[in-house]
Fold:
Amino acid sequence: MLGRRRSAPLSGALAAQALASVAVAADWLPVAPEDLSMTTMAEAPGAPAAYLYQQIDRDDAHYYQTVYVRLKILKEEGRGYGDVEIPYVKGQDSVRDIQARTLCPDGRILPFSGTLFDKPISSERGVKVLAKTFSLPGVQPGCIIEYRYRYDFPFGWIFDSHWLLSQNLYVREEQFSLTPAGVYSLRWSWPNGLPPDTRQPRLEKGRVLLETHHVPAFVSEDHMPPEDQLKYRVDFIYFIAGSRHDDDASLYWPSYARQRLRDIERFLDRPAAMQKAVAQIVLPGDAPEEKLRKLYARVQRMRNYTYERPMSEEEIQRERRELVSSIEDVWKHGAGTRYQLNWLFLAMARAAGLAADPVLSSARDEHVFDARVMNPDQLNLNLVVVNVGGRDLYLAPGIPFTRFGMLPWWETDTRALRLNAAGGTWINTPLPEAGESRLESRADLRLSDGALEGRLTVRFSGLEASWRRLAERNEDEVSRRQFLEQEVTARIPGSAEVRLTGNPDWDDAEQDLVAEFAVRVAGWATLAGHRQLLAVGLLGNPEHQTFVHASRVHPLYFGYPYERRDELSIELPPGWHVESVPQAHAIDLKGVVFSSGADGAHQSLHVRRDLTINMYLADVKFYPALRRFFENVRSSDEEQAVVAADESGARH
Amino acid sequence: MSPVRATRHQRTAGAGLACATLLLAGAASAAPPAWLQAQVGAALPAHDDKTAAVVLYSETLLNAAPGGRLRRVDRRVYRILRSDGAERGTVFVPFTPRSRVTDLHAWCIPATGRGYEVRNRDAYETALGGIAGSELITDVRARVLQIPAALPGSIVGYELERELEPYLLADEWVFQDTLPVREARYSVELPPGWEYHATWLNHAEEPPQAAGRSLQWVVHDVSALHEEPRMPPWQQLAGRVWISFTPAGRPPAVRSWQDLGSWYLELARGRRDASPEIRQKVAELTAGTPQLLERMRAVARFVQSDVRYVAIELGISGLQPRAAAEVFAHRYGDCKDKVTLLSSMLRELGVDSTYLIVDSERGAVSASTPPNLGFDHVILAIVLPEAVHDPALLALLPHPQLGRLLLFDPTDPYTPLGALPGQLQGGYGLLVTPAGGELVQLPQLPGSWSGVQRVAHLTLDTSGALHGEVQEMLSGDPAAHERQVLASERLAGGQTRIAETHLGDSLADFRLLRAEVSNVADQNLPVEWSYRLDAERYAKRSGELVVVRPRVLGVEASRLLETPEPRQNPVEFDAAVEDADLFEIEVPAGYQLDDLPPPVDLDYGFAAYHSRTEFAAHVLRYRRTFELRALSVPTARVGELRQLYRSIAADERAAAVLKRAAPAP
Structure:
């Protein structure tokens, strides 16, 4: 899944050949009669349109790209594809040689002869983004529209690029080519594989070529991994060839790791300053972990530029932030970016006598890191591994509100590079168990006139607490209150009044986030003759509409493992008793677990509901089982406890 | 709630900032102007703890030049109270070639520390976001200026200068905001001999203070407009003044809606002339169709479906339609272009028609609105020939001179000739007639035109599973919406997915065995769904009891009014509707009824809801109707609407209780 080309100036003959083959064709490509006459496509049932053909030829040696698009309009809703918009940066890029036409099913050809507009998109500090826009004539279901153009990049600029094979419509055929810039070496990769029966990109006569067919339309679904992990694509990365290891990932990464380690060690090399700093934070008699916790807490309290509210340039200039050339500067300034604060922690841990290593990591909510690709930009995060008592602790105090011993969810279970003198070791960051990230709800309610009223306490722990604290870090009390109230309201199916009482602790990452509410749910109990029926899933709304579709394309993605524990205690009005309760349920599919139960005694009803998602990623082949699981959960939530009036005839 | 990944963009930005060499000098900060300084320490207008910011001062200065050009200066001063108020630190100014920004200047006086100043050169320009995606080109852009340090405790203010060349010599002063306003001033200086006329809307009239040729109005302590879902448009609520001007020695350009209509008639003159190609197309579309109404339907359908919506809004073309021949040749155009083409084609059938200029948000224009160009949509008023009568023609407006007018919106691809999309019903529009214009109110269609009817015949088995067939018929607005949803499906199995989403609203667990939808292409017929489904655990056991919810499908309840704060605005609906459900569930032999949910009979006038559950011959039968009769519920009656929704929600959750009959001895 990797290709590469060493830098070498193109020979004259090769260059000419490359140019000739990518020149914009003077003629349009021939159109098959059956393409014109067809009104549906079996490969794209229900689609408003489909790409019959797309060709993108990029020439990095001469800084331009040509594009050819042919689309079949299948339904009325596809006519919008006849309106084309091509953004560019004025004065930097240009779009020219635009040609377009509509081919009607009856054989007529309508060339585009209308107005080509330059639509302003934005303009800031001299940078103007415009778009060439035009509208093809006579676009109707059954037509084929096609257009082509040349896009000129800024002269002299060479930059990484990619081919996106997956589109939002079915693609019958597409071709790509890239003529590399001669001055750099080029590497390309296809991290998500290729469409079936697609030959790998190949280097041929100085160009990288790819042809592919029958690429299905890309589908977006709920609970899916990041799109970048799923779309077919080919990524191109330029690099300066300087090492014989550029071709081999098993050699590339150790070399890279050694280089990065040297840079980091140089940055950290202020032992005296760090000793002095540590001496202000820990006591000589502190046990190693205690030292670590103190250092962690201290770094977490420092000003963190990365997570402040966005500041204007004027405000930043006013601050006169000083340059940071070493870790001592970060400490002196009392502030840093997330990246710097993690390295400060590393330096302090070492100064405290602990064995600690830097780690370069990636964020799995954006992409899946693949070492074979040899793209170091993907390792864009950092953390620290500290060995305490023979146990490795993975720590990132540069992210506010992250509890000691945990990582933010997007850095859990990701491939990371632990840097050491040996050249680096690949590790997987730990994934906390579901029980470490819990949302526990405890409600003490009374039933009165069909309504439930009382107190609800919600406790967020682990990752459940940390992401909420991080999300609300720059908000005030009013916003935070609304945030929590809206969350609880959304969990209750029905009419709920929810009011936060008390003051949750938003600041202490080591403590659970606990919120207390006064709640009233009108009309929860429904009448049936002399009975009242109460559905037991008072807080089950989040599972509503989860996986209702029979079919699915993509894997399932939950973010991180978590638990939900709900406990309700409902006091009945005088003269009422629990007549019957739903049966208990227990479903254990190992990755997902659900149990529920209810009992009625002493004029009160007790309901318990536990849901555990002990994974975050599941292959699509498990979808039927997961769908069934959530159906069972919803079905259980709908079950009713039945309360009845005592013989005395007390009523609702 | 999904976990949020915070500040992805900040992560990389922050990493760069601290390492960057700061080459730029800090922005010089001149003292803010006196009108801004005067607000430091000013008392705040009444507000609550949720108020994000307050408007301390608002001033508009209008200077009219003899040539008809207006120079307008706007000054605003805010005190930021909460972090949400920081958005007032972004000055967003739409402009066009006829409303040019000549200067923009802003300041911040923080609670502590030195102030900030930013100028026009610090602003950037952008296309207007939020406009429906079919604008190929427009000359409307926005200038955006960020005021630094717009934090709680800061006072931020700006001064905006513009040169205006309005089509109508008039100006609007909107003094009510979504924030409390302490003081708002409007001053105008007129050339000698000029006259003005001021119309106050949504506020008691205040007399101006005059000094020479200057006039000034001042209002104090204006309460905030509260933004809520399904509220009327701001034009219906916000306190504002419409001021029109008449230059010396000239009659008013527009004194009335009649004048405005005449002006538009002139603008559109000649645009509806048919070309030979148009005539040919009309002949082709109507060949072999003797009935006039069917011929009208054919051309209407052509303009709806074969002329795609594309807007080109440059200069006067934002108001003036393109010629019908041009629209026909390219087969695209915006709302006024499509109306123009349709009018031209109908004329070839001998049917006359005229423009009806409306606002797509009902309530933006009312009977008391003075003549102005504040519309955003155009539909067609067709003069219905005497011979044409059909019960499907519901969007009728009787006119004393023109006769029966049939209103039609060719921009809406899903609403047939004879009907009107809900959002246009009941609103006001400018009818452009040969005699000029007049403000008319568009009709409200009966609820019977729009709604969802369901009938289901189902069987419950001894395991508690439900099986059977459901037929669902959607008409009016629900049908149009469903057609749009179906059209937007791009993938194989899209119809099944849509059906699954519908069922998932009501059923916890189901298998859709079959789903078919018909009449999608024929907008004159209701959309009809037919499902066959199984729901495995539909009946629930509770001890010895079996609990069955008779309302199988469909949600009429709404959480719209379940808010912590009391509702402050009326509630707007899209259209009057009449929905009906009939669900019959055959229960297994050996089960007997123990309890039924009570019937519900509620009628508030603006809406009514009735439901009844019966049990006979082993069939649990549930019937209900829901009628929404009004397009709007006033604030004073919102409490009743909330109670109605709660009662509906309770009814939708209600269940019958069955028991297994004891075996015969």
Q: What stands out?
A: Chain A touches chain B through 118 residues (CB under 8 Å). Chain A has eleven helices and 36 strands. Residues 249-431 of chain A form a domain with the C8orf32 fold fold (CATH 3.10.620.30).
